[in-house]
Amino acid sequence: MASTSILHFRPLFLFVLVASLRCGAAAGDVDGGEGFCSAEPSSECSGGPPLYWKATHPTLAPAHLQDLPGFTRSVVKRDHALITPESHVFGPLPDWINTLGAYLISPSIGAHFTMYLANMQDGSKSALPPKDVERLVFVLQGGISLSVGAGTTHSLLVDSYAYLPANIKHSMISDESTTLVIFERRYSATEDFHPDLIVGSTDKQPLLETPGEVFQLRKLLPTSLPYDFNIHIMDFQPGEYLNVKEVHYNQHGLLLLEGQGIYRLGDSWYPVQSGDTIWMAPFVPQWYAALGKTRTRYLLYKDVNRNPLI
Questions:
Q1: What's the rounded Cα separation, in Å, for the pair 253 and 275?
Q2: Which InterPro entries match (predicted)?
Q3: SS3 breakdown of the chain: % helix, strand, coil, rounded to 5?
């Protein structure tokens, strides 16, 4: 009798489940709710959100899963990790003023760099990194005023960035709600090379050739020897994918800024979407395919220009 009742209500359950996945169906889904590989939001659900809005306001999970206690898509393994927004833990950043941070990648996971989010508000101010540590700041939401040295000030808005060489005096101040993604690592000095301060924006960087590949590539830093890492911005149109399954000595830290797709790491395959972070250890097999109906854009840290024996 019990099994007959379950079968009787199954069509109703499926109807409710499908309805809950439609745009805006979930309670609290203020962004119009885009689940994995969903179609573009309809006009009634879209209001022209700002660039990278989904990276800072991601869909945490399908509507029928996001309220389950203990639910997360995050996975941490020996040679890679997927860190998803529902598992972020924010706390006060040491010595920063009125700023909460969430460390996504750090040496404790096996990386030689840190990657973290910094949420600033009106009156927030940054602190300096430790001695001999270089820093790259990329604005995801809002904007900051960056002061470097004695009197030089730069205004950084969404899609802008700054590379700050180790031991350079600087401060960042925000007077609005701002989200930064920050990369830091201990600078690997070599001979008499000294990197320069760089301030720029993604749209000012030229597209580079990618022989044998279809994605679009921009590099935010020079490729010259003074720089021991670079940040790549990679764009994939729907259906595009990496032609080569890469295996190399470089480490990666990745933040998905737009879109959704499938990432292969080692022998595992992960659905990923805006707001997800990935750490890739040296020599882990890696591959990506863009799915959905909008482009994928991700930001990728890569160590360069140094002998791996050092």
A1: 13
A2: Cupin_2, RmlC-like_jellyroll, RmlC_Cupin_sf, UGHY, UGlyAH_cupin_C, UGlyAH_cupin_N
A3: 10, 40, 50
pLDDT at 6 over 50: no
User: Which two structure tokens, joined as six digits, stand for 43?
Assistant: 């006009």
**For 99-108, what is the mean pLDDT?**
98
* 78 strand-pairing partners: none
User: What stretches of the chain show up as alpha helix (H) in DSSP?
Assistant: 2-20, 53-56
Could you tell me which of 259, 278, 282 has the C-alpha nearest to residue 268? 278
Q: Give SS3 for 13.
A: helix
Task: Extract the tokens encoding 182.
Answer: 């920050």
Beta-strand ranges (E) seen in 13-158 are 75-76, 80-83, 91-92, 97-105, 114-125, 133-141, 143-148, 152-157
Write down the pTM of the prediction.
0.82
What percentage of the chain exceeds 70 in pLDDT? 82
Is pLDDT of 307 > 70? yes
Amino acid at 239: G
